[in-house]
Amino acid sequence: MSDLRRVMWNGTVRSLSLADQLLAAQTAGCEALSITPSDYNRWLGTGIGTREMRGMAADAGVGLTHLDPLVRWVDGWEPHLPGGEEFPVETVAFDEDDFFRMAAALGVESFTAWAGSPPGRYSREQLVDAFGGLCRRAAVKDCAVTWSSFRCSASPTCAALGTSSGVRTRPTAASSSICGTT
User: Which pTM value belongs to this model?
Assistant: First the structure.
């Protein structure tokens, strides 16, 4: 995926139905909509099949190109948010196998790997090795990995994560815009 495109982040429109999310993305001039694994499963549970989701997106001229987030990419993952906030485990409780099945079914081009563990939970080597394994698995699927972590921009671990695997990776940046560029 070498071209830049405007992608509406699902969190901006999460409370809307899939049809309304696609309409919002189209109206905002976004070429794509990111979706979450939990929303994908919720839509399946309402009777909207994967083929129908992809057809709705095509009819709206909006791609479903990015699955966000995968958080269980490191062994022994435990939910953690800074400040002791309650973690919405049900939204991210998908392991790599589940996540990659969804990504394949949807035909996404990229996904976000998010790190949310307590400081010191993993060594730099553990994170780099786990992320490298994830990137190699993604490369087999020709899927780019976007990585995200708290305070990532100044972290040497994050810099290592972005360069160690030899696989296409893109750091994310916080943005207040509706559409981000990937």
Answer: 0.75
Question: Where are the domains positioned within the chain?
Answer: 6-181
pLDDT below 70 — which residues of the chain? 1-3, 79-87, 116, 141-182
State the Cα–Cα distance between residues 68 and 92, nearest whole angstrom.
9
DSSP 38-85: HHHHHHHHTT--HHHHHHHHHHHT-EEEEEEEE-B-STT-----GGGP
User: Residue 176: CB partners within 8 Å, gap ≥ 6?
Assistant: none
Query: How is the beta sheet containing 6-8 ordered, strand by strand?
Result: 169-171, 144-149, 110-115, 63-70, 32-35, 6-8, 179-181
Question: In this structure, what token pair is assigned to residue 161?
Answer: 């994560």
Q: How many CB atoms lie within 10 A of CB 116?
A: 18
Return the CATH class of domain 6-181: alpha beta
**Pairing outcome for strands 144-149 and 6-8:** unpaired
